[in-house]
Design a protein that fits this description.
single chain, alpha+beta, five-stranded antiparallel sheet, 33% helix, globular
Length: 163
Amino acid sequence: MAAIIHLPHATMPPRASSSKTAITAGILAGLLAAALGAYYVYQPPSAGHATQDTAGAQPEDKAVNALLALPEIRAWSAHIEKASGGKSHGAVMETTPEQRLVDGQAYFQLSFFENGPDAAHRWESFLVTPDGKRILVEDMVEGDLLSLERWRKESAPMKRVPN
């Protein structure tokens, strides 16, 4: 897991402002705002709380709820909350509004973020069918789509948080 390090402005050398810097800052601010909004809309349920009823839910809600029900997402969320003293939270956010077709099946593109007071950090990206019955994990290094079983076997996501 990558750490977010904040360096005081005094230790950073001055650099010329550019439109590229302004665009990058705008994109990052937009992602943070979206992640904050997603946190309030799709806040993972805490351990011991009942999960949301999906009987009358919209397809996107079913996909998000299926992702929130994964033991990895629940453990990551609890770890983030505990390690930050409540200052950071886990959040699921739709990263692209368009559904992605994989082998003729439509998937919502969702990511799990660590949403902190100063930044949002993406932990993992997923593709979830509208009915929430199939979840794939994007391998960001190789560009492959992994089944949950393969991802669990190869990446050991539960080891990202202490027991």
